[in-house]
UniProtKB/TrEMBL annotation:
SUPFAM superfamilies for this protein: Isochorismatase-like hydrolases
Family membership noted in the UniProt record: Belongs to the isochorismatase family.
Enzyme Commission number(s) from the entry: 3.5.1.19
Domain of life: Bacteria
First and last residue of the signal peptide: 1-21
Name of the featured protein: Nicotinamidase
Keywords: Hydrolase, Metal-binding, Pyridine nucleotide biosynthesis, Signal
A biological process from GO: pyridine nucleotide biosynthetic process
MF annotations from Gene Ontology: metal ion binding; nicotinamidase activity
Pathway as given in its UniProt record: Cofactor biosynthesis; nicotinate biosynthesis; nicotinate from nicotinamide: step 1/1
Organism field: Aquabacterium soli
């Protein structure tokens, strides 16, 4: 009955769980929106432009008012970073190398700290965001994930921040679906959060089938795949 479902919604919201009303998700106070790496680098004209990268911006801007908690991330590399092909003789972008922590894809030089390429897209409007987390700043180690670096040991502090604030659920958006978004979503699960990826608020790089592979891995880890239209307007 309507009364019963209204009571159930009230209970869910008092427990801080996302509430599904009329088929829509209301994020509530215990959820955070994570906006991954929406930086000039990935946008039109950037050093690693992702096809359709700019299209995520209006979607994220429209989602932002539905969230009380928003975290923004920035890929934030040193010059000559270990993830840059230019740091190795005889390597080209999109080839791989072996580093102490495993296989590393090599990228064009990108998002060097303090450069325009590393700035957030100027059309991105998430004024209520309370935390900007930067990652990938250790010279010898990459960090696709906003939670932990590529050695799967070094924490960025994001899990602690979210837990200290009672956040249980994260909704992940941004770029690129098959790298930083996917690793962030899977590490969110590993850290004990409920994790949703809002697909139309992401775009992938799709290197040798990496986009389909990332969705499979995310799904296997319990990451939920939704669309921005599944979220109730704020
Ligand atoms: C990313 C490649 C290199 C990402 C970062 O944000 O997905 N991809 N650095
Ligand atoms: Zn990077």
């Amino acid at each position: 009955s309507l009364l019963k479902s209204t009571a159930a919604l009230g209970l869910a919201s008092s427990l801080g769980l996302p509430v599904f009303a009329a088929g829509k998700i209301k994020p509530g106070t215990k959820a955070a929106l994570i906006v991954v790496d929406v930086q000039n680098c990935f946008l039109d004209g950037g050093t690693l432009a992702v096809k359709g990268g700019n299209e995520v911006i209006p979607v994220i801007n429209a989602l932002a008012p539905a969230f009380e908690n928003i975290v923004v991330t920035q890929d934030w590399h040193t010059a000559g970073h270990a993830s840059f092909a230019s740091a190795y003789s005889g390597k080209k972008p999109f080839e791989t190398t072996k580093l102490a922590y495993g296989t590393q894809v090599l990228w064009p030089d990108h998002r060097v700290q303090g450069t325009a390429d590393a700035e957030l897209g100027k059309e991105l409007k998430v004024p209520t965001a309370q935390l900007i987390i930067r990652k990938g700043y250790h010279q010898g180690m990459d960090s696709y994930s906003a939670f932990e670096e590529a050695d799967h040991k070094t924490a960025t502090g994001l899990a602690g921040y979210l837990k200290a604030r009672g956040i249980k659920t994260v909704f992940i958006t941004g770029l690129a679906t098959d790298f930083c978004v996917a690793w962030t979503a899977m590490d969110a699960r590993k850290a004990g959060f409920e994790a949703y990826v809002i697909e139309d608020a992401t775009r992938g790089i799709d290197l040798h089938g990496s986009l389909a592979a990332a969705w499979k891995q995310m799904t296997d880890k319990g990451v939920k795949r939704i669309q921005s239209g599944d979220i109730a307007a704020g």
